[in-house]
Amino acid sequence: MSAAHLVLRKLFHDNDNKNSSKAVCPTENTQGPDIVPFVGNLTFHSFASILSGACAAASLLIALTIIALHAINYSNPIQQRQVIRIILLVPWVAIFAFLTVWQSGAGEYLVESLDFGCAIAISAFLLLLCDFVLSNKGSSDELFGEGASRRGQFRGESPVWLKRTWYLVLQFIPVSIIVWAATCITVATGIYCGASNSPHFAHIWISVIKMVSTIAAVLAVLKFYKRMKAHLAPHNVFLKFFAFKGIIGLNVLQTFIINILVGNGTIAPSKYLTYHDIKTGLPSLILACEMPIFAALLFVAFPVSVYKGEQRGPAAGPLVALVQTFDMRDLGSAFVRGPMRLLREQQWGMERQSSFPLAAEEGLPPAGYGREGLVRV
Q1: What pTM does this model have?
Q2: 136's torsion region: left (phi>0), alpha (psi -120 to 50) or beta?
Q3: What is the DSSP string of 106-154?
Q4: What tens digit of pLDDT does each residue of 171-192 get?
């Protein structure tokens, strides 16, 4: 037995005899009748694996089509790399949902991966909203404080409310990684116990941390939207937010309902369904089947048509678009340097990369941006 295993068991288990009964994980009833074919010669598990795999393939095809269109028409790198990151949530969820169905016994190891993909997407979404705001004339004062446009909108410290919003959203990334790793470790060492909410086990603590982190990130984005609603109105932000955040929200609701039905015996192992098919396979199968719908919704929410036009040529090729998308240094640097420098570099990058052709008049910002939206360095 490893030293790490001993330490973890000591943290979550009480050695006192009078409390020892509370530290016993309830035995889950995994017994059921012999499994018979569900459709033709296929068992439910085989059928679900094929169906979830087909839905994952369809979702991947739609998502890659949207990504390819944005990469080919990469006229605004600052915005479009965030759009591509958001769209990548669909294949991420679809693939892991398929793996969870296919390897249902490993579901507890895989299910927390969904939050990591969502954390990247919601952080990219906040960056996208900031750029939408900065594209409006005079909006820098509201985003960076009164008088920002007069003193140079990127000088000085970020307002407290903006810092708070940024860090409440960005914390979701490291927390999701920690929660995923902690879940895998505690499941492997036998101290997770998803069947119990006793504080002796890791399940309840991981669930609380995950819930608090998720709610904090979502509320921060919603408050930002409410504060900047006037500037964001033309961009149909609510549809964009629902198109990707609805994936995780719907999955949480479905899993919650299924757990209740399993707990009260409404859904139980049968000649078609094993315990693992019900507990982990069924929610993931439903989620996988929903992914093509969300992929189509993302196609509507993030159209490539707004980045096309006679005056808007690609600023870079598709390969550069993919490299910039997977280069997460902008998100990582925000933890250290804060929002002010990151947004400043976004605007500098827009000018360097010629995201939009500059107007003929000296000092006039590119088409689609107000005079306050671009600082000449």
Answers
A1: 0.79
A2: beta
A3: GHHHHTTHHHHHHHHHHHHHHHHHHHHHHTSTTHHHHHH-TTHHHH-TT
A4: 999 999 999 999 899 888 888 8
Strand partners of residue 71: none
| Rounded distance between C-alpha atoms, residue 337 and residue 318, angstroms | 29
DSSP assigned state of 230: H
Residue whose entry in the numeric block shows the structure tokens 């960005």? 170
Distance CA 199, CA 197 (A): 6
Torsion of CA 116, 122, 128, 133, to 10 degrees: -150
* Helix (H) / strand (E) containing 9: helix 3-12
Looking at residue 271, its amino acid is K
- The secondary structure of residue 247, as a DSSP letter, is H
The predicted pLDDT at position 145 comes to 58
Cβ-proximal residues to 299 (8 Å cutoff; 6+ apart), any chain? 62, 65, 66
Cβ density class 254-273: b for 16+ within 10 Å, e for less: bbeebeeebeeeebebeebb
Residue 51 near residue 284 (C-beta atoms within 8 A): no
Q: Extract the tokens encoding 177.
A: 């990684």
List the structure tokens of 203: 């399940």
Distance between CA atoms of residues 354 and 357, nearest Å: 6
Domains of the chain and any CATH numbers: 41-353 (1.20.1070)
In the prediction, which pLDDT does 375 show?
A: 33
